[in-house]
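Memo to structure team: turn this sequence into structure tokens by end of day. - J.P.
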Amino acid sequence: MLWLPLALVLLLAGCGGEKGEMSGRVQEARVEDGNLVCIGLHDYETGGDTIFYLTEDTDVISWTDDPDEAGFLGGDVSETRVNVEYSVRSGVYAAQRITVYGRMRQTGSITLSDGTEVGIWADGGDNSYRLSDGTELLREEPTVGPWDIYGGGRVFKSLPYDVRRTVAVWYREQGTLYDVEEELERIWATEGVDAGERHYLVNQETDLTAASPRVLYFQTSVMIPFFSGEEGGPAIEQYEQNAAFDRETGEKLDIWFLFAVPEEEARAALVDRMADGDSVLRMEMQAALRPEYITFHSDRLDITFPRGTLPSQEHSAGWGLDYQELDGLLQPWAIPVEPEQER
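Reply from structure team:
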């Protein structure tokens, strides 16, 4: 990176300019007389590198003791994760505020099938999987579960502690629905070192989608890398898995228990409504339908088949059914109530 004379930076910084914000990892820094002059930041979003100059007006706030504000301003910046609010003029980026969130630390490693070593780096709440030269192959965001959901949180948090704990324990024991090592193998085999330019991501979130007088309905959404073979930025594939729990005990329920007819009859009725006379699609659905594909919402029931489960469909495919269409199929106590009825 090209460092500019500090006097020139101070002159340009006082001339206003466009403003912006960037988050990333500090890769290098310049320190003069024990004071931090500038940092080289690797942008998480774009993968680009930018130099930010500090001025006498730069405000530094640290949410951690490693490093604290004094340590950061003294040059202890290696592998820290920061957010920079800045102004830019004539191509010079002047930091107005720097928020320090913590330092990346290696916590372990994974050896791929061809012997390639991938380091596991703790980066705030994320895990960053990186080669020895710093190339990031994959970023894993923290799992979000029913204990810290936003949508539907009021209903869940209003339940007795034992019920909430039973549901939360079930999801913690289930763990992630993806395998990090498998994703790394796929990325390395498909992209190699070019993966560092793609910014691949995995995450998993569980949210409450609906509630009936006796049942809680949850959906787990998973995002993993998708390799289409086409040029462009990173591609993401998302798929869902659903589950139902007894509202009084927190016990996980068999989805087919929620129907007022035997499982085979329920399956056939759902497939008939979705296939709409298409015999090929009907056969595919009959073979592919799994209970975890069924999502209960307050106003409808969705059934989504992941990519590859229906041979006639190139991508994932989903159908929505109004509860009126399912009259007589579901137990009355299993039909979700509207959110306003929960108040």
